[in-house]
Write a structure and sequence with these properties.
Blueprint lengths: L1 H12 L4 E6 L3 H13 L3 E7 L3 H9 L6 E3 L3 H9 L3 E4 L2 H5 L6 E4 L4 H13 L3 E4 L2 H18 L3 E2 L5 H14 L3 E9 L12 H7 L3 H8 L2 H14 L11 E2 L13 H6 L3 E6 L7 E6 L3 H9 L8 E5 L8 H11 L12 E7 L17 E7 H7 L11 E2 L14 E2 L5 H12 L4 H5 L1
Parallel strand pairs: 1-2, 1-5, 2-4, 3-4, 5-6, 6-7, 8-10, 9-10
Antiparallel strand pairs: 8-11, 11-12, 13-14, 15-16
Length: 436
Amino acid sequence: MIIVDTALKARAEAGNPVKVGVFGAGFMSRGLANQILNYLPGMKLVAICNRTIEAAKEAYIQVGAENVRVVKTVGELEDAIAQNQYAVTDDPLVLCQSESIDVLVEATGHVEYGAQVTLAAIEHRKHMVLMNAELDGTVGPILKVYADRAGVVLTGCDGDQPGVQLNLYRFVKTLGLNPLLCGNIKGLQDRYRNPTTQAGFAKQWGQTPNMVTSFADGTKISFEQAIVANATGMKVAQRGMIGLEYKGHVDEMVGMYDIDQLRSLGGIVDYVVGAKPSPGVYVFAEANDNMQKHYLNYGKLGEGPLYSFYVPYHLTIFEVPISVARVALFKDVIIAPSGGPIVDVVAAAKIDLKAGETLDGLGWYMTYGLCENYETVRAQNLLPMGSAEGCRLKRDISKDQVLTYDDVELPTETLTHKLRAEQDAYFAPTRAAVAV
């Protein structure tokens, strides 16, 4: 942040702000618009693309923007930027093809739409910041392959827990320590919540019921921890993660894990329900020699063998612009797959399901997501949560049963399914690896 704010100040003084375009005009996008327009010299939100134009206009107007212009072509967008106007459109390609925009932000949280606009952005050589863990956890590794080929940055963001965890992970690694656990602190976990039970909370905060349901039923945290695993190479200790419940501080949890198990797995991703400081994140690490241990103890971190590091908050829209600046100014990746998938998110039945039914989407009534190691997902042909929407059931499925590809008929081919098939083929284990 010390480097970022200085660099943004220089861009502001030069009259050359980082120009940003956003996909989506929902809860997160509105907060992001407020931050960039009103509190961040050196950055300008020049355009919002949303399937409903009026919602995009409202996202600007409610934070005090004037001169909001509807554009339908790239030329109209470029003219609006030159005239110091704010642009709204319903055509993603208008943003992707713009020569003026430095970084795009995907903030819809929708897997299929997110896949479409992200691939289009990459094809037009635009850096993309994802506020969409669901997309990243489903097809992030293959999108990263496309981004690398195009020479652009594809990354998650600060503010969401995965990016905050990776910031902390990088900090701990820079100290010369060995991270063995990346954790997420939750206040609630109930896999059977649905949009009806969460309607009141959603209304209170101006969010959609299915979105807040995905927070409550564990789907969201599964995607978040999966992308942390894919960035670090860590695994899960068991399907669904361990998920301890603890009312004390995370510092007091360093003795609750089997360090030999953590080492054998190359570290794990996990979460805890009820711990403090909520809603923060934590990294548990081990020292490499007695001198490190001596100085960690002197620094009041205890005697080990695990040492606790944490951030007490994640501030979503306040921190996302920092990610945009890191990408635009330094091409720094906040969080992205380091290679092939390590941990996946699979679909489990929230209720008893009947043959012939069509599965609804993330955070709805029929399914919830669980983390599972990717090698197990492939071996058991498990159905990814991000690919489940629109699948038609071939047979009855009992509550809490994990679905497989054999249980469903896939919908008419979507980009998500195409990318997922390509990802599975691209990162398929070699025969030599299987033999070993």
